[in-house]
UniProtKB/TrEMBL annotation, chain A:
Listed InterPro entries: BP-dep_ABC_trans_perm, MetI-like, MetI-like_sf
Keyword Transport: yes
Membership in a protein family: Belongs to the binding-protein-dependent transport system permease family.
Source organism (scientific name): Plantactinospora mayteni
Record-annotated ABC transmembrane type-1 domain positions: 70-266
Membrane topology field: Multi-pass membrane protein
Compartments (UniProt record): Cell membrane
Protein name as it appears in the record: ABC transporter permease
Record keywords: Cell membrane, Membrane, Transmembrane, Transmembrane helix, Transport
Main location: membrane
Transmembrane regions: 12-31, 69-93, 105-128, 148-167, 188-210, 244-266
Lineage: superkingdom: Bacteria
Pfam families attached to this UniProt entry: BPD_transp_1
UniProtKB/TrEMBL annotation, chain B:
UniProtKB keywords: Cell membrane, Membrane, Transmembrane, Transmembrane helix, Transport
SUPFAM superfamilies named in the record: MetI-like
Protein name: ABC transporter permease
Record-annotated membrane-spanning stretches: 22-51, 91-116, 128-148, 180-201, 236-262, 282-308
Length: 280, 317
């Protein structure tokens, strides 16, 4: 803890006021603009609405098929999060408890893919999905299934990394006891480790959900009108004849609140996971 | 007593269970298969594509695409041609963008973490509030900024011209030279909370005795920061800066959502550049060659960074 002279207290309050302002200002404009009638957002900007209205929140569902995009996003993100957690739990358990050749190589490869530019995978993946469709009839390109598969691998490396840290912090004696009682390693994982690691697993699930919910690059290429998700759908408000800025702001708020709330609840776990990984 | 040898035998068997690689590979199999399908195979395919004349006629029949040798690379690297010149330009812009965003985000995150280091009543609340820009879905935040930066009905111009009277001219923030400023601004706003989060976690791990000792020696806040906080944060900072750099360098969402289809030349970041040159012309071969070059560039940069910081660390020891 920093030891501070008295004048430093003033510096602190000024500084914190500055940060509060830069964070709140855009959020304030978002919230008030969403409650403005259309004429208010088309003319010159004003800090306060001439008339407070909740109509934009009703209109957003009619201007574009926002309901469908919302449903698509919910389905895709939920499926990606569930599958990602399932796959990550098994992989993390293997890395945390077993000693096997290729263990380090696997960890490094998986983590490093996280750092590569998404654009590198986009073109080949597009081509692969189009051709899988032609060969097998399984539609991955333009379908929700394709998005789920793509997104779940995006969150996989970080999820595995976090869960390995989490599992490592669980004493081996716990699952050893289960093994002695005759459970196999998978039984020990499911009956002993998973219940203890539930907070970490929930954190990873939320992380995977948020990742899928916010992805733009692949969604912009890999979706059709039927499977379109929110990140792409929301941009349609601005391609209309005039931009309904009040509706755009309302829609942005509606799609933000659930995930932002999830993320903020998760922050403590995220920090733990990140620092645990950094220490090792 | 009779139980014990049996129990240790069972425990040994349990340990032996963990040494069975077969099961470990089985547990890893789903993750491995997915990583292969979405990351590793596409990477290999991407390299393969970059050596092909893969234009729109061959998308559905890619194996028929003619061999191009190094032609795609030659086109991408030929700085005298329009394509090569604009790629190089985009690379410089992206580099400047990434460096500015990393510097700005780190600085804001560090200062905010420093100010919130002391326990106080509003600490938890402010900490959560400061994380909000990072917690919003990126596209929603950027769409909001798009509105704030509108010339005629945006908040920023209203604030600068009508409220603060700093300037008389209503600037186009999303066109021309200012578009670069705009994209950096938005990106810093989105990323600094991440730096804040990590630096704050790092600061919690600095033992209080170090500050006490420094304070007893008469060090003021400035010296405590320089002699205690920064050196102790070094390992955290090294990782943080690299991660932030790679994220912003590869950033697609911010420029794509902020500018829509019409990216201004001044803010032509590399991911969007490659995306647009691939999907506008449907020349996937060339696009792949550019992606591979981008990857090589990043690998080179990352390796250099890691070597440099490792060497300095060794010297420091």
């Amino acid at each position: 803890m920093l030891f501070e002279p008295r004048w430093f207290r003033w510096v602190r309050w000024v500084g914190l006021a500055f940060f509060t302002t830069i964070v709140l200002l855009p959020l304030y404009v978002m919230a008030t603009s969403a409650a403005k009638p259309l004429r208010d957002v088309q003319g010159e900007f004003h800090w306060w609405p001439t008339e407070l209205t909740l109509r934009p929140f009703a209109d957003i569902w009619r201007t574009i098929p926002l309901g469908r995009y919302f449903l698509n996003s919910v389905l895709v993100s939920t499926a990606a999060a569930l599958c990602s957690v399932l796959v990550a739990v098994f992989a993390a358990y293997a890395i945390s408890r077993f000693r096997f050749p290729g263990r380090a190589l696997f960890s490094v490869t998986v983590l490093s893919t996280q750092m590569f530019p998404g654009i590198l995978f986009l073109l080949p993946l597009f081509l692969i999905y189009v051709n899988i469709d032609q060969l097998t009839g399984i539609t991955l390109y333009g379908s929700r299934l394709g998005l789920v598969i793509t997104y779940l691998t995006f969150s996989l490396p970080f999820s595995i990394w976090m869960l390995v840290g989490y599992f490592n912090s669980i004493p081996r004696e716990l699952d050893e006891a289960a093994l002695v009682d005759g459970a196999g390693p998978v039984g020990a994982l499911l009956r002993v480790v998973v219940p203890v690691a539930t907070p970490g697993i929930v954190a990873v699930a939320i992380y995977a959900f948020v990742t899928a919910w916010s992805e733009v690059l692949f969604a912009s290429i890999m979706t059709s009108e039927q499977s379109r998700t929110l990140p792409v759908g929301l941009q349609l408000y601005s391609t209309q004849a005039g931009v309904y800025w009040n509706q755009v702001m309302a829609a942005s708020l509606v799609v933000s609140v659930p995930v932002a709330a999830g993320f903020l609840m998760l922050q403590r776990f995220l920090v733990q996971g990140l620092t645990a990984g950094a220490v090792k | 007593m009779a139980d014990r040898p049996g129990a240790t035998g069972a425990a040994r068997r349990a340990g032996a269970g963990w040494r069975r690689p077969g099961l470990a590979y089985l547990l890893l199999l789903p993750a491995l298969a997915l990583e292969l399908l979405v990351h590793l195979v596409p990477m290999a395919v991407g390299v393969w594509m970059s050596f092909r004349e893969l234009t729109q006629f061959f998308i559905r029949n890619w194996s028929a695409a003619p061999w191009a040798g190094l032609r795609n690379y030659r086109v991408a690297l030929d700085v005298d041609s329009a394509i090569g010149a604009s790629l190089l330009r985009s690379l410089w812009i992206t580099l400047a963008y990434a460096l500015l965003v990393v510097a700005g985000s780190w600085l804001l995150g560090f200062v905010a973490a420093l100010l919130l280091q002391r326990p106080m009543r509003s600490r938890g609340l402010l900490r959560t509030l400061f994380l909000v820009p990072y917690a919003l879905p990126a596209y929603a935040a950027v769409i909001a900024w798009n509105f704030l930066l509108q010339r005629d009905n945006g908040m920023l111009n209203h604030l600068l011209v009508d409220n603060l009277h700093l300037t008389d001219d209503r600037a186009f923030w999303l066109l021309g030279d200012r578009s670069f400023v705009a994209v950096v601004l938005v990106s810093v706003w989105r990323h600094w909370p991440f730096a804040f989060l990590i630096i704050m976690a790092g600061m919690q791990n600095i033992p209080t005795d170090l500050y006490e000792a420094a304070a007893i020696d008469g060090a003021g806040p400035g010296q405590q920061i320089r002699r205690v906080t920064l050196p102790m944060l070094r390992p955290v900072n090294l990782v943080l800066v690299l991660v932030l750099f790679l994220w912003t360098f590869n950033d697609f969402t911010t420029p794509f959502v902020l500018f829509g289809a019409a990216t201004p030349d001044q803010a032509d970041l590399i991911s969007v550049h490659i995306y647009q040159s691939s999907f506008v012309t449907w020349n996937f071969g060339l696009g792949s060659a550019m992606s591979v070059l981008l990857l090589l560039f990043l690998l080179l940069l990352t390796t250099g960074y890691l070597l440099l910081t490792a060497r300095r660390r060794r010297r420091a020891v």
